[in-house]
Specification:
The structure holds two protein chains of two kinds. Chain A is an alpha+beta fold. Chain A folds into two domains: about 100 residues, Ubiquitin-like (UB roll) (Roll), CATH 3.10.20.30; about 130 residues, Fumarate Reductase Iron-sulfur Protein, Chain B, domain 2, CATH 1.10.1060. Chain A contains nine helices and seven strands, in the order ββαβββββαααααααα. Helix content of chain A is about 35%, strand content about 15%. Chain B is globular, with a radius of gyration of 20 Å. A two-stranded antiparallel sheet of chain B has the order 1-2. The N and C termini of chain B lie far apart (about 65 Å). By secondary structure, chain B is mainly alpha-helical. Chain B contains nine helices and two strands; from the N terminus they run ααααααββααα. The chains are: A alpha+beta, B mainly alpha. Chains A and B meet through α7, α8 and α9 of A and α2, α4 and α8 of B.
Chain lengths: ~250, ~220
């Protein structure tokens, strides 16, 4: 661990600016000096925004929340890749040290027909919530929580379910899919339940309603390009998509 | 009920399943076609008898109808997928770079290789099935001399060139298609997917080398 660095670089940013969800947007060039290489990508944008505010300009709107890679709020297409060039890294966990002095960085919003742009880099990803609402839950009578070990669960299934549940719903899989398909996201949400006994009860309806909602929202079709898996900041595997396909086939009978 | 059924049949996963099943069936057709071609290298009469028995069997019409349905299902679903996927992102990216960890040349060119294969199949049918008719007699039975037609066709080096080119395109298509079909049918697995990919690549190499070899064999063996 090298500790903090005093190194500062200059970046040439090309950032998508769009007034609101209806207006046409355009790429705007910004030259940003004295960017500490220890800064995260979002801190770098904060730095730019502070300057824009000082200059009386409208700051760049972008999504962010936890800034520690677990909430799924941050997005951004950075140099043509969702969450930037690093594998299994969210935008907030991407650091300026990954870029060179005087490098040009193109920053734009995630794009899909089912997504909208609220403003600048802020993306409307409520379509993902709609998919979850369609069936990404289990129905139980509320009351005292049962003992955690009351239902025996195979260790392997528990692990696979947890792996699927790591999905933070950031939408990078959709953004990087050449077809703007939401298969990896939906399959992770289907899988986390399908692998557990509590989820099996509604498994049939769940996969049907969630896939139906996904299709209705205008997401594309999966052609097994694997860009979703490659770009997923949480390392969700396409074996989840195979599992969803199995669940769907099972639901036909 | 029927509306619900229609919705299920049109769902994105059903389209994957259609593509997967039809694709794998077309791959088994390739194996059958290859086996038939092997007879070409064994004996001219045997090859002609095989071709004759194949086309004179009344079940051929049923088999051909099934093959056409499978083929059309694959083509139509493929075209629908391409159009829908294109419209799923109407606002294109200012800059989009592949991760280099996912999509391959084969996976991103399926529609193009697919269209080229479709064009090749039309040409292939014109060249042979609906090509020149040479007659011959084997064991007193008159039949078409398909062996002669094949031999004459591959006397022309240009024909060998574009046939091999077409096989390379087919090889690229199936190198993604085979494992992709298994994945679509829900058989992707943390361990087995890598084996499925290897099987797909072996099948692709087998397709390219295997079918290309016949054209070169025909050339070396010479025409009539």
């Amino acid at each position: 661990m090298g500790g903090l660095s005093d190194k500062k670089i200059t970046l040439n940013l090309k950032i998508w600016r769009q007034q609101d969800g209806i207006a046409d947007g355009k790429m705007v060039d910004y030259r940003l000096n004295d960017v500490k290489t220890d800064m995260s990508f979002l801190e770098m944008l904060d730095l730019l925004n502070e300057r824009l505010i000082r200059e009386g300009e409208d700051p760049i709107a972008f999504d962010h929340d936890c800034r520690e890679g677990i909430c799924g709020a941050c997005s951004l297409m950075i140099n043509g890749q969702a969450h930037g060039p690093e594998a299994e890294t969210t935008t907030c966990q991407l650091h300026v040290r990954k870029f060179k002095d005087e490098q040009t960085i193109v920053v734009g919003p995630f794009r899909a027909e089912a997504f909208g742009v609220h403003k600048d880099l802020m993306v409307d990803r409520s379509a993902l919530d709609a998919i979850v609402m369609a069936g990404g839950f289990i129905t139980v009578a509320t009351g005292n929580a049962p003992d955690a070990n009351a239902i025996a669960i195979r260790k392997e299934n528990a692990e696979l379910s947890m792996d699927a549940a790591q999905c933070i719903g950031c939408g990078a899989c959709i953004a990087s899919c050449p077809n703007a398909a939401a298969m990896l996201f939906t399959s992770a949400k289907v899988s986390q339940f399908a692998l557990l006994p509590q989820g099996k009860i509604e498994a049939r309806e769940r996969v049907r309603t969630m896939v139906e909602k996904m299709d209705d929202l205008g997401f594309g079709n999966c052609t097994n390009e694997q860009e979703c898996e490659a770009t997923c900041p949480k390392g969700i595997k396409i074996t989840n998509i195979a599992r969803m396909n199995r669940e769907f086939i099972k639901s036909l009978f | 009920m029927s509306q619900k059924c229609c919705k299920t049949m049109n769902s994105s996963i059903m389209k994957k399943i259609f593509m997967g099943i039809s694709g794998l069936l077309l791959c088994t057709f390739l194996i059958g076609h290859f086996a038939g071609n092997v007879l070409y290298t064994v004996n001219a009469d045997l090859f002609n008898i095989y071709a004759h028995k194949l086309v004179t069997n009344p079940l051929i019409y049923v088999a051909e109808a099934i093959l056409i349905i499978i083929f059309l299902a694959h083509v139509v679903t493929g075209i629908r997928l391409t159009i829908q996927n294109y419209t799923a992102r109407s606002h294109k990216y200012y800059l989009k770079v592949k991760t280099g960890r996912g999509s391959t040349f084969a996976s991103s060119t399926m529609i193009y290789t697919g269209v080229l294969i479709l064009a090749f199949i039309v040409a292939h049918l014109i060249n042979f099935k609906y090509g020149a008719y040479y007659g011959t007699t084997v064991d007193g039975e008159p039949m078409r001399d398909l062996h002669k037609l094949v031999a004459q066709f591959f006397m022309i080096k240009l024909n060998i060139g574009w046939y091999i080119g077409a096989m390379v395109v087919l090889g690229i298509h199936v190198s993604h298609g085979v494992w992709s079909a298994f994945q679509s049918l829900g058989l992707g697995h943390i361990t087995y997917t890598s084996y499925l990919k290897v099987i797909g690549k072996i099948f692709a190499v087998f397709t390219v080398i295997g079918f290309s070899a016949f054209t070169l064999y025909a050339l070396i063996q010479g025409g009539y």
